[in-house]
Fold:
Amino acid sequence: MAETLVLASASQSRRTLMENAGLAFAAVAAAIDERAVERSIEHRSLGPAELAVELALQKALEVSDRFPGALVVGCDQTMSLGQEVFHKPSDRVEARTNLQALRGKTHRLNSGVVLVRDGAEIWRHVSIADLTMRDFSEDFLDDYLERCGEAVMRSVGCYQLEGIGIQLFTTILGDYFTILGLPLLPLLERLRALGEIDV
Structure:
């Protein structure tokens, strides 16, 4: 049994998922610049799913350096339309542009999770969800952005499915945990296989 399980994330939703699953852990934000990591690995031409796992790994490795002996859970998520990777919008204008690009199309959420101990990767996994946005009107988009306010810039896709964002979609294929950015079922299975939690 590991002395400590550490989640390398400042995400409240990820912490809540792990707490609700009954896991005992510490949560520590990774001190990395995700865009700088992306630039440093551009030459590797990673696909969006591979990029999510690589970002998760870099977070876990950074936190692992600070917690010797701990089993560190790193996770990250990319949102992609084909091979194009989107980032959180910097303002409402960019949020509108992103939503217009996604409208009427199916985009993908790629949620990567890794386990690291003492700087060594033990396991990696990526789960995928496909989300199809409906072909909503410009009037709907105006109203949506107005109702969301600043919250529209808190997520890469400019939506929270647990709120009004659900009205953007016609079809969602993938589990809830993948959409929230932590493939919890595969993680729990691996923690059981490693003897970190009860079978």
